[in-house]
Amino acid sequence: MPIKTREDLMQLKAQLPDETSYRMTILLCGGTSCLSSESDIIDEMLREKIEKNHLENEVNLVKVGCLRFCGEGPIMFISPDDIAYVRLTIKDVSDIFEQHILRGHIVDRLLYVDGAQNKTVPAPKDMDFFKKQQRIALRNVGDIDPRSIEAYVAREGYEALRRCISDMRADEVINVVRKSGLRGRGGGGFPTGLKWAYTASVKSDEKYVICNADEGDPGAFMDRSIIEGDPHSLVEAMIIAGYANGASEGHIYIRAEYAISIEPLRLAIDKAREHGFLGTHIFGSEFSFDIHIKLGAGAFVCGEETALIRSMEGHRGEPDKKPPFPSESGFRGKPTSVNNVETYVNIPAIILRGADWFASIGTERSKGTKVFALAGQLRNIGLVEVPMGTTFREIIYDIGGGHPEGKQIKAVQIGGPSGGVITEDFFDTPIDYDSLIAIGAMMGSGGMIVMDEDSDMVEIAKFYLDFTQDESCGKCTPCRIGTKRMYEILERLTAMEGDPQDLERLETLGENIKNASLCGLGQTAPNPVLSTMKFFREEYEAYAYRTKRTSYLIDGKQCIGCTKCARVCPVDCIAGKVREVHTINENDCIACGACYDACPTNAIVKP
Amino acid sequence: MREKILDRSTLDTALLARLDAYIDSLKGDKQEQLIHVLHKAQELFGHLPHNLQLYVAHALGLSGARVNGVVTFYSFFNEEPVGKYVTSVCMGTACFVKGADKVLERTLNLLGTKKGEMSPDGLFTVKDIRCIGACGLAPVVTINEKVYGKVKVGQIDDILSRYRGEKRAD
Q1: How far apart are CA A524 and CA A460, in angstroms?
Q2: Do B91 and A314 touch (CB under 8 A)?
Q3: Domain boundaries of chain A, sorted by first residue
Q4: Are the Cβ atoms of B106 and A592 closer than 8 angstroms?
Q5: What is the rounded (10 degree) CA torsion for A454, A459, A463, A469?
Q6: B40 close contact with A: CB closer than 8 A
Q7: A296 contacts in chain B (CB < 8 Å)
Q8: What sections of A472-593 are H helices per DSSP?
């Protein structure tokens, strides 16, 4: 039955089983990392035990989206006991069931241990990882069953849509978004309200709203976790955008790599249609809207909006010049508003709680929160959402817990292949769109990779450039050929075959590519190289002047002669007797790192 | 691009019928949905040989060049056959920082193949792929749907041997 009024919504909400009627609710993480570590099998096994013991009415087991603390996965939260079990394996299921579910005894060995303080922290809310976070975009992710529309409605889901359609004109909706100060979360930071106002102002028989879910930055998975964990927020936000922009069709462009994980999204669209949130006469009005999913096929450049539109039309994903902007002439030549997943899901919260509330969070010119996928050489790895203005230091040390072995953290890479590195001197910079640009980096979509003293910055830059030169669509020359030449120079340098002039060539080439490329891919592709050159020039020089050591070494003071390194070395270049210090033959070492991984005493020194 | 170039004899008619049914089921502008059709064709046939690309071109009223242009643009589409076990080494940043390049190199050496080519025994195709979003498990290798996390260079032989025997593919 289509939902038309507030009362209908309340009724739908009432269909959700009352959580308080359960003795216990278990939230089990179904995010990508955890699924890869068999959380789906843990779910099945636990469910079977619950059913066998006829506890379905007592124990509420919910497979949620991402619980966000990926490094500790698979992870589960149990309430009302307020504890988390971490790093689960299928062997732990019996203990959880027999001890905790049946007898109420906490299984101590599965509790989270805060490595930095060396103490057990049972409750998620007491974990440093969660303490400084503030959730707006991720407000439902990990809390609700993504397959249940009732669960979403119970959290005021579709109430923002109802308010927009029943109580507000389209321009009033846009004004709220404008006043909130929300800026595009895909990287560029363009004010969302302004984009919408522009699309709405263009006269046309048809308009489109598009969701850019082509999350292509290696190391970023924020959008995916939202799509998997809270798909209805995206659906609701797109309908609101359709209403405000004057569009009757929405398209979600999603990368092919995520194709197997978007089942919750398809289900959400079907459910929304079933309940009349999509279709004709939404909330009894004259407004009609529907959403379609378009699959990408693996091309990074399709994250650029004009390339994305080309791809949606069934072409090679090559970007077009702007202007005209998509707001004027986009998908099928009609006015089109393209927004990113994280941007969208902020909208219902803004409508419900007001522009002033949203604008009160963050900094002067960057409002609200930002989600980062925190990864790399860090104790706590996962998804973090923090108010704009939080410093790198807070994220790395307070939330991330610092380096797992206490090593020096050398740099943070932000913005993926389009971004740059930030060194310790800037760790106290408040993170917002403008402060990052001021220090030569950019917000990007939210990948944040922490690197320690062992990381080779030239190799890192080469890695990103390998990515961009491979992903360059080939349409414009500076990007197609320029990035290739830059990559060749880096290859030459790292093979110790370069010369000091190569550094100058890299800089000149980089600046030219930035200035002359057609789209964002080329305009930002040299950033990882230029920014590492700025901060770590000595590392480039070590290659250019060929003073760099290329083999691994053994620290004689640390080596205990356990022979583990010699046994794993694929080229047998490690010699030494049992309980005596081992040595590496520098000429034969291929720098594969196998010994480094195998050594129990950290005696191996990286090149 | 003329009819005579299109040689259907090498294409399985039962699979073609399923592809036709899929194309028929599409609503709206079919040419615009070329990428979806190619996804379906690859799902059915495993890869997209030239005559299959031509078949799709005919079915949608597009030129062969246009279809080939799209197929070769996107990394998800394969023109060449792929091994039974598609082994993908994640080259996302987190994995790279944790040594994914070494993992890839070792995998290729062990199988005696090159990136993107089928191994001599027809069992494996090794690819480097973009971030799969399992950064907490870096470095990550996937073999078909199965994900191996925190992979060490020394473990790769053991992992591959599970598939070589074709028995213990857990």
Answers
A1: 16
A2: no
A3: 17-126, 149-359, 369-452, 457-544, 549-607
A4: yes
A5: 160
A6: no
A7: 35, 74, 76
A8: 477-494, 501-516, 520-524, 527-535, 537-544, 564-568
**B74 at interface of A, judged by CB pairs closer than 8 A:** yes
CA distances from A284 to A242, A277, A473 (A): 16, 10, 46
Q: How far is CA A522 from the centre of its chain?
A: 22
Q: Does A520 touch chain B (CB under 8 A)?
A: no
List pLDDT tens digits, range A40-95.
999 999 999 999 999 999 999 999 999 999 989 899 999 999 999 999 999 999 99
User: Two tokens at A114?
Assistant: 């805060």
- pLDDT, one tens digit per residue, over B39-56 is 999 999 989 999 999 999
The CATH class of the A549-607 domain is alpha beta
Looking at the complex, report in whole angstroms how far the Cα of residue B146 sits from the nearest Cα belonging to chain A.
7
Judged by a CB distance cut-off of 8 A, whether residue A380 touches chain B is no
* DSSP for residue A289: B
**How many angstroms separate the CA atoms of A503 and A492, rounded?**
11
- ipTM field: 0.86
In which residue are the tokens 């062990």 written? B110
For the ranges A1-10, A196-205, A267-276, A300-309, the lowest mean pLDDT is seen at: A1-10
Name chain A contacts of B140, Cβ cutoff 8 Å. Answer: 36
Any chain B CB within 8 A of the CB of A297? Answer: yes
DSSP letters, A215-271, are --STT--HHHHHHHH-HHHHHHHHHHHHHHHT-SEEEEEE-GGGGGG-HHHHHHHHH
CATH topology of domain A457-544: de novo design (two linked rop proteins) (1.20.1440)
Global pTM value: 0.89
- A578 by DSSP, 3-state: which? coil
Q: Which two tokens stand for residue A134?
A: 């503030």
Rg (C-alpha) for chain B, rounded Å, is: 19
Which residues of chain A from 19 to 48 reach within 8 Å of chain B, CB to CB? 32-33, 36-37
Whether A228 and chain B come into contact, CB under 8 Å, resolves to no
Assign a CATH topology to domain B85-164.
Glutaredoxin (3.40.30)
Q: Does the A369-452 domain belong in CATH 3.10.20.600?
A: yes
> In the numeric block, which tokens belong to residue A135?
């959730």
Q: Which of A149, A49, A155, A159 is nearest to A93 (CA)?
A: A49
Closest Cα in chain A, distance from residue B69 (Å): 7
Q: Kindly state whether B97 is in contact with chain A, defined as any CB-CB distance less than 8 angstroms.
A: yes
Q: Work out the minimum CA distance from A300 to partner chain B, whole angstroms.
A: 9
3-state secondary structure of A325: coil
